[in-house]
Specification:
Blueprint lengths: L1 E12 L2 E12 L3 E5 L6 H8 L7 E6 L2 E7 L2 E4 L3 H5 L2 E4 L11 H11 L5 H14 L15 H13 L5 E5 L7 H16 L3 E5 L3 H7 L2 E6 L2 E6 L1 H6 L4 H11 L2
Parallel strand pairs: 3-9, 3-10, 7-8, 8-9
Antiparallel strand pairs: 1-2, 1-4, 4-5, 5-6, 10-11
């Protein structure tokens, strides 16, 4: 069974038709990278998957249960949407940490206040996660005291602290310089090696090729092509995909 299935997703902002009949799925343990030019609808697709935007029509299914489905031509969301929110974690490009919270409090807040878990147990788990991500000495630091790469790693461990089944990354390195980008990509690669289920919107083509089980290429609100990285990057017969990848290799 797929952890996530999105079928026939439509989304418009006014007259701008951003997602046009998009369908894709993510199985347990899969790493799926979504690539494409700016404005192709990649981030909007992620925001729809995580309920930050509402779809106009289509179906969103987590673990075989419908979170949203189309009734009489319009999307209707499940009443118990909070039950679905616990299934996923989301890492933003601009970190979205609480500036007035320490690193540890940023991590502990949701598991304790939302999941009502034992504070001492959560603290132990968070300290172990910080150690794993080379952030052991940063528990009491505040976001402003960290580098961009460290802040992004904290936002990743904050998402992991909720024990999600699937992690979404929305261009996690776009706000970072090349050196710090390497730090964050190393962490995501480590999670991929541990078979964490992930969907990654990224402009890092070599990374997408190296880490993904499947790559989805979007353009102008549609899925142009999807397949294994070696097929899409090395053997594609699609002219639009070729053009996009050629532009990337020339920049």
């Amino acid at each position: 069974m797929s952890v996530l299935a999105m079928s026939n997703i439509q989304k418009s902002f006014g007259s701008n038709h951003v997602l046009k009949d998009i369908s894709f799925h993510v199985d347990k343990g899969d790493v799926v990278s979504i690539i494409g030019p700016s404005g192709s609808g990649k981030s909007t697709l992620l925001r729809c998957a995580t309920f930050l935007e509402t779809i106009d029509s289509g179906t969103i299914t987590y673990d075989g249960r419908n979170a949203a489905e189309t009734v009489s031509g319009k999307a209707v969301y499940a009443k118990n949407l909070n039950d679905f929110r616990h299934i996923f974690g989301l890492v933003f490009q601009n970190f979205n940490l609480f500036p007035h919270y320490s690193v540890l409090k940023n991590m502990m807040d949701a598991p304790v206040s939302v999941l009502h878990r034992n504070k001492s147990e959560v603290r132990d788990e968070c300290m172990a996660l910080l150690e794993k991500m080379d952030l052991a000495g940063k528990a009491d630091a505040y976001p402003c005291e960290l580098s961009g790469g460290q802040q992004q790693r904290v936002s990743i461990v904050r998402a992991l602290a909720m024990k999600p089944e699937i992690l979404f990354f929305d261009e996690p390195t776009s706000a970072l310089d090349p050196e710090l980008t390497g730090e964050v990509l190393k962490v995501i690669k480590q999670l991929a090696d541990e078979k964490m289920t992930m969907v990654i919107v990224t402009h890092e083509m070599p990374f997408a090729r190296a880490v993904s089980d499947r790559v989805v290429f979007m353009d102008k609100g549609v899925v142009v092509e999807q397949g294994r990285p070696e097929e899409l990057f090395g053997q594609t017969q699609n002219e639009r995909t070729k053009q996009f990848l050629q532009n990337y290799s020339n920049t």
